[in-house]
Amino acid sequence: MAHVEQAMGTVFSFTVYAGAVSHTRAREAVGDACALLHRLDAVFSTWDRQSPMSRVRRGELALADAPSEVGDVLGLCTTAKELSGGWFDPWAMPGGVDPTGLVKGWAIERALDVVRVSGVQAALLNGGGDIAAHGEPEPGQPWRIGIRHPWRVDALACIVAVRRSVATSGSYERGPHLVDPHSGRAMPAAASATVTGPSLAMADALATALAVGGDDVLARLTGLKDYDGYLIRADGTEASTPDMAFVD
Amino acid sequence: MKRYPVVIGATAAGLAGVLSFHSSSAHPLTNSVKVAKDAGKGPATTTPPTTTSPKVTQPTSPGSKNVPTTTTTTTTAPSAGPSTATGTAEQYGYGVLSVRVTASGAKITAVQVARLQTADSYSQQIANQVIPYLRREVLSLQSARINGISGATYTSEAYALSVQSALDRLHHK
Q: pLDDT of A157-205, one tens digit each?
C-alpha cells in the first residue's frame, strides 16, 4: 500500500509491503505513524512560536520542563556535532538552538519504526527527500534510491542501494539555506550532499554538515564505520567515501 | 522535457506494490470531482465495458474490504475494468505537474504525466548554467528502476500530491 501525508511543511510518502500482515493492520500502523509525525511537528515546529521547541529556543521553557523528545533530539545533535567536526551545529544558528537539520530525519525514523513494529515485510518512508527504510522490497534486493541531480529536474545523479536510511542536502530548490556554523553566514554550499547509514537522524545532520563542510566532512565520514557520503561540489565534480553503495 | 514521462514511469514502478490508498485528511482536495475518464488520451486507458452504473470500481483486495461503498458523483467511471483519473496540477518549484492514474480494481496499472509546464526561469537557469555537468554521465531515468528519490523536495511533493488526488478521485480511500 502507499499513503501520502502532509506534515512539517513537506510531504511524507509511505510505501508498504505488508507481507504476512493484513492490509488493515498495515494501514492502522501507517495511520499511527502519521499521528506521530503530526505530534512531533507540534513539538518541534520553529514556525509555531508557541511550540515547546520555539519556547526552548527563546529560553522561555527549561529543557527539563519540555517534552522529553526535545532533550533526546538535542542529545543526538551533540553527537552529530562531534561526528561532523562542528560542521553541524544547531547551537550556532541565529535565533537560538535549532535542531531542524536533524529533527526531520529523526521524526521519519521514529515514524517508520511505528510501521516496522507492526510486522510488515518492508516499508519505505520518504519525507521531502529524506528516506528511512525497513526490510527489502524483494528478497535480496535493497531499496534503490535515486539521488536527485542538482541541476536537472529530469535526471538523477546516481542510484544508491539503501538498507536503512539516506538523506540528501543541497542548495537547489530551496535556495542557499545552509549556514556555516563557524562564521554564522549563509554560504555557498556544495551542490548536493548525500549520507547513508543506520540512523536517518544522524544521516540527515551529517548530510547538512557535508553540504557545508564539503571534503573535510567527507574525510570524517570515511573514518566512520557505518556512514557513507557522496558529494557533488559546487563546480560539479564528485567525490564519495570508498564504501558508498552505488548501483547501476 | 521529453524524458519526463519516463521519470514518472520509473516512479510508477515503485508503486507497483500499491494495493490500496488511504486518503490524507490534511490534503486539500477538490471535491468537485472532475472525472475520471480520459478515454483515448493515454495508452493505458482501455475501453471499459458498457455500463450504466454511476459507481466507480471498487477495490477488490482483501485489505480494502472495509472501504465504504462508493458515493455517486459526477463521475462516469465504469463499475468494472480500468478507470482513469487526472490528479490536481501541483506547483513543483520549476513549474506545474499533474499526473494521470489508471487503476483496475484496487491495483494501479499506470501513472503518467498528464501535464508538465516548466517555468521560464528554470529554462533560463539551464541556459545560463556555467557549472560543468557531472563527470558521471547524467543518468536518465529511462532505465532507472528506483523506489524513491533522495533530495527531491518540490518535484516529489508535487508528484505525490497529484497521484494522491487522482487516487482520491478514483475513490481509493
A: 888 999 999 999 976 544 445 567 777 666 556 889 999 999 999 999 9
- In a 3-state reduction of DSSP, which class is residue B148? strand
DSSP A87-156: SS-GGGSTTS--THHHHHHHHHHHHHHHHHTTT-SEEEEEETTEEEEES-SBTTB-EEEEEEPSS-TTEE
Contact A194 B26 (CB under 8 A): no
Cα distance between residue B92 and residue A224, in whole Å: 36
| ipTM of the prediction | 0.86
Helix (H) or strand (E) holding A229: strand A228-232
Q: What's the Rg (C-alpha) of chain B?
A: 17
Q: Which residues of A touch B152 (CB under 8 A)?
A: 129, 146, 148
Judge: B14–A168 Cβ closer than 8 Å, yes or no.
no
Cβ(B159)–Cβ(B99) below 8 Å: yes
Kindly list the structural domains of chain A, giving each domain's residue range(s) and its CATH number in brackets, ordered by start.
2-240 (3.10.520.10)
Q: What separation, in Å, do the N-terminal and C-terminal C-alpha atoms of chain B show?
A: 32
User: CA A201, CA A140: separation in Å to the nearest integer?
Assistant: 25
pTM: 0.68
All domains in chain B, ordered by first residue = 80-169 (3.90.1010.20)
